[in-house]
Design brief:
Number of helices of chain B: 17
Number of domains of chain B: 3
Number of strands of chain A: 2
CATH architecture of chain A: Orthogonal Bundle
CATH topology of chain A: ABC transporter involved in vitamin B12 uptake, BtuC
Distance between the termini of chain B: 34 Å
Number of helices of chain A: 13
Mean pLDDT of chain A: 89
Number of domains of chain A: 1
Radius of gyration of chain A: 20 Å
Strand order of the largest sheet of chain A: 1-2
Structural class of chain B: alpha/beta
CATH class of chain A: Mainly Alpha
InterPro entries (chain A): ABC_transp_permease (IPR001851)
Shape of chain B: elongated
CATH class of the largest domain in chain B: Alpha Beta
Distance between the termini of chain A: 67 Å
CATH architecture of the largest domain in chain B: 3-Layer(aba) Sandwich
GO cellular component, one term (chain A): plasma membrane
CATH superfamily of the largest domain in chain B: P-loop containing nucleotide triphosphate hydrolases
Radius of gyration of chain B: 25 Å
Order of helices and strands of chain A: HHHHHHHHHHHHEEH
Strand content of chain A: under 5%
Subcellular location (chain A): Cell membrane
Shape of chain A: globular
Transmembrane segments (chain A): 6-29, 66-85, 92-114, 159-176, 206-225, 287-309
Protein name (chain A): Simple sugar transport system permease protein
Strand order of the largest sheet of chain B: 6-7-8-3-9-10
Oligomer: heterodimer
Largest interface: A-B, 22 and 33 residues
């Protein structure tokens, strides 16, 4: 295989690996820009993966699976909201707790319902999101450079992949061109300004969390019934945290979030590719090095080496009206 | 408290009453403000001005009373109804989103539709009109955090006007402004009044009241004590109404016997967290065996001065010497080793951990002392025994070292702090508001202890907003105004003299 083919193959894999990151990071974007830290993205992803796999298994309908995934993630989001908005609890504690609930509940329920050690049953093909061949992909295949890129990277992905990339401009538009977006950005910076403008801080933050749940539901669904064909124990495998890292890396902005997720997805794909291979001069590089890179890059960023990452000012602080 | 007025009233408050737990923030407040006038509300910090205005703006709900706007009774449930009734508020701490543009801030909450595009165009046009009408010029595309404070305040005013405010409340608007910016603000306010807007100005600065208002009301301890036409009153009268005549609590004390200088402050400048200079090039000495009082209306830099000396706030420049040793920038533990004891102004936030039991608070800050334990371990028996001795000596009630500190009354809480700091036999003692929220009996007790400290040859620096307290305890009085020490008087100085100095009128 020549280098170009390898590159195309890694790129295709990078796209597939970055999709759950992209959905999750965008989900986190809405929550954190509204001033609610969401360390529970991992749990939302996991719970919605489980729910979508179950529903898709029983109904054989991928869209029903997606609906279940979204609904579950929104329910988790609302619990987070109830703890951190209504009761002004610690947002980190609430998020971590939800991660544990998701990790435990999926195993217990999975074992009870399917008896396969935490796996759900194999989802039938019609219950999955499978690849869509874009028009002209076969015709283009022989065109040098652009051809393989189009046929193997851009075409052949499932619908959720295209939705993920569509969500980037949509998120940007919502944040910067709508009333909801303006208020959401304001409430994450200075909830006092929102409150004195006669807008309910709580309701606004709840709505932001609904959007978060909505997007996180896509991420989980993608894992369970697009990338695989069943729910597997802990299948999110820390992607929620990497997405959070990508969100910080992208300084809480939609378009940079996309690039950060693609970068982290690429690192992941590259790590897979490098498994068992040795580099000239260096020899075999442990795969953990590549897996750690997203976190290392984020730390370097946070340390101030790549510009300044300024989080939403009111992030993590419950809003109390009484002073 | 209404004056006969030919104009129709814009605001009528009838019998407004508000309690926060045990604190009676507003007592049966009646107030009438005429349309097209500038009405000042003056009072010391904690007099209840801000609470009253927060009620008017829907931030709090009054327990009792009625609000009438332009003659109509309104139920102000939240800020939205306040805005809808034509009330706009410029908060002391600006309610602006700092990384938004002026335009975005003005639009927030009044966007005119789900999408921003149309609203942006309307807001831009309206801002231009407001600029032309009232001389409120601000670049609509400037980002807030890059604007000077005076412009940020103009954005706050624009926000209110954009929402159609007919009544504008300004809460301590000049606190963060330079004199030039304040002048500009007053110019704008006069234009607004002349165009028929009603303005309420909350302040504790007498000079501003005299300079800009048409009528003025004085608040003291939650009550509206007087309303005057500004033209018919004087600074002296207002100052007296503000501070109020209190029962004189004279403490028996002999003459001072000052020894060597124990605390020396040289050219000290302190800034607050916003970067505003609060203490401005202050120098003074405190000698062994004397009490130096710092008088001043709250908010003129006394708190920051105290915190800088106590090592809680880093001075921007200048020097502090304790018994000849340089002490600026040393942390509170280091200062304690130098012989400095500190009774902070706010016992709830600084002096005590309210959730701790009494004996735990009785060693706070001195917990490393070898009497209370060895190495990493605390000797609980020794600490409790020590706490019980202090309880007996200071008559702290109830006499129970295992009681949660929150369950003691204000006076007894203060005694816990006083006992802790005095019993360590420091060389010098700095005290902020020693008797705030303390009952009469405890006041007398604490005052006696302070004088005993002086007679034992300690240096005492006392900061209090209670002028009577300063006058009855101090051997020398320094008056602070706008961050500067504007004068020094002997302990026998009259209330009138000090009052004028505190208002920044005489030196």
């Amino acid at each position: 295989m020549d280098y170009f083919d390898i590159f195309i193959s890694i790129l295709g894999s990078a796209i597939r690996l970055s999709i759950p990151l992209l959905f999750t990071a965008l989900a986190g974007l809405f929550s954190e820009r509204a001033g609610i830290f969401d360390i529970g993205l991992e749990g939302k992803m996991l719970a919605s993966a489980f729910a979508s796999a179950c529903v898709a298994y029983y109904t054989g309908n991928a869209w029903a699976g997606l609906g279940a995934g979204i609904l579950t993630a929104i329910v988790f989001s609302m619990v987070h909201g109830f703890a951190s908005i209504t009761n002004r609890g610690n947002q980190i504690v609430s998020g971590v707790a939800l991660n544990f609930v998701a990790a435990g509940l999926t195993i217990v329920l999975g074992q009870a319902w399917f008896n396969q050690g935490g796996r759900t049953g194999q989802v039938p093909p019609e219950g999955r999101f499978s690849g869509i061949v874009l028009p002209g992909a076969d015709m283009m295949r022989d065109v040098p450079i652009i051809g393989p890129l189009y046929a193997n990277v851009i075409s052949g992905n499932n619908i959720l992949t295209y939705i993920a990339f569509l969500m980037v401009p949509v998120s940007w538009w919502v944040l910067y061109r709508t009333r909801f977006g303006l208020r959401l950005r304001a409430v994450g910076e200075n909830p006092g300004a929102v409150d004195t403008a006669g807008i309910s801080v709580s309701w606004l933050r709840y709505r932001a969390l609904i959007v978060t749940g909505f997007l996180a539901g896509f991420a989980g669904t993608y894992l369970a019934i697009a990338q695989s064909a069943a729910f597997i124990n802990n299948m999110s495998a820390g992607k929620g945290y990497i997405a959070l890292a990508a969100l910080i890396f992208a300084k809480w902005k939609p378009v940079p979030v996309m690039f950060a997720c693609l970068l982290f997805g690429f690192l992941d794909a590259f790590a897979n590719f490098m498994q068992g291979k040795s580099l000239p001069l260096i020899g075999e590089v442990p795969v953990q090095i590549f897996q750690a890179l997203p976190y290392i890059l984020t730390c370097v960023l946070l340390a101030g080496f790549i510009g300044i990452a300024r989080p939403p000012k009111a992030g993590g602080v419950p809003y109390a009206k009484e002073r | 408290m209404s004056l006969d007025s030919p104009k129709e009233p814009a605001i009528e408050l009838v019998g407004i009453d508000k309690k926060f737990g045990a604190v009676h923030a507003n007592r049966n407040i009646n107030l009438t403000v005429a349309k097209g006038s500038i009405h000042g509300i003056i009072g010391e910090n904690g007099a209840g001005k801000s609470t009253l205005m927060s009620i008017l703006y829907g931030f709090y709900h009054a327990d009792q009373g009625e609000i009438r706007i332009f003659g109509k009774p309104v139920a102000i449930r939240d800020s939205q109804t306040a805005i809808a009734s034509g009330i706009g508020m410029v908060h002391q701490h600006f309610m602006l989103v700092e990384n938004f543009t002026v335009l975005e801030n003005v639009m927030l909450g009044a966007e005119g539709g789900q999408l921003l595009r149309k609203g942006v165009a309307t807001a831009r046009k309206e801002l231009k009109r407001l600029e032309d009408d009232y001389g409120l010029e601000v670049d609509p595309d400037a980002v807030i955090e890059e604007l000077p404070v005076g412009s940020q305040q103009r954005v706050e005013i624009l926000k209110a006007l954009y929402r159609g405010a007919e009544i504008l409340i300004l809460d301590e608007p000049t606190g963060v402004l330079t004199p030039a910016e304040a002048d500009h603000l007053f110019k704008v306010l006069r234009v607004l009044r002349d165009q028929g807007k009603t303005i309420i100005l909350i302040t504790h600065k007498l000079r501003e009241i005299m300079a800009i208002t048409d009528t003025v009301s004085v608040m003291r301890r939650g009550e509206m004590v007087a309303t005057r036409r500004t033209a018919e009153t004087t600074v002296e009268e207002l100052a007296e109404l503000m501070v109020g005549r209190r029962v004189l609590l004279r403490v028996e004390k002999g003459g001072a016997n000052p020894g060597k200088v124990l605390l020396s402050v040289r050219n000290l400048t302190v800034k607050d967290s916003r970067g505003v200079t609060m203490v401005d090039d202050v120098s003074f000495d405190v000698r062994a065996g004397e009490i130096v009082g710092i008088a001043g209306v709250a908010g003129n830099g006394q708190s920051e001065l105290l915190e800088a000396i106590a090592g809680i706030r880093k001075p921007a420049s200048g020097e502090i010497f304790i018994d000849g040793q340089p002490a600026a920038g040393i942390d509170p533990a280091g200062l304690r080793d130098l012989g400095l004891a500190h009774i902070p102004e706010d016992r709830h936030h600084m002096g005590l951990v309210l959730k701790f039991e009494e004996y735990e608070n009785s060693i706070l800050g001195y917990h490393r002392d070898e009497r209370y334990g060895r190495g990493a371990m605390l000797d609980l028996d020794a600490i409790r025994k020590d706490a019980e001795e202090k309880i007996a000596k200071y008559d702290i009630r109830p006499p129970n070292a295992r009681l949660r500190t929150a369950n003691f009354s204000g006076g007894n809480q203060q005694k816990i702090v006083v006992a802790r700091e005095i019993e360590r036999d420091p060389k010098m003692l700095i005290i902020g508001q020693p008797t705030r929220g303390v009952d009469i009996g405890a006041i007398e007790f604490i005052h006696k202890r302070i004088i005993e400290m002086r007679d034992a040859g300690k240096a005492v620096l006392l900061v209090s907003v209670e002028l009577d307290e300063i006058r009855s305890l101090s051997d020398r009085i320094l008056v602070m105004f706008a961050g500067k020490v504007v004068g020094e008087k002997s302990g026998e100085a009259g209330e009138q003299t000090l009052g004028l100095m505190m208002a920044g009128i005489a030196a």
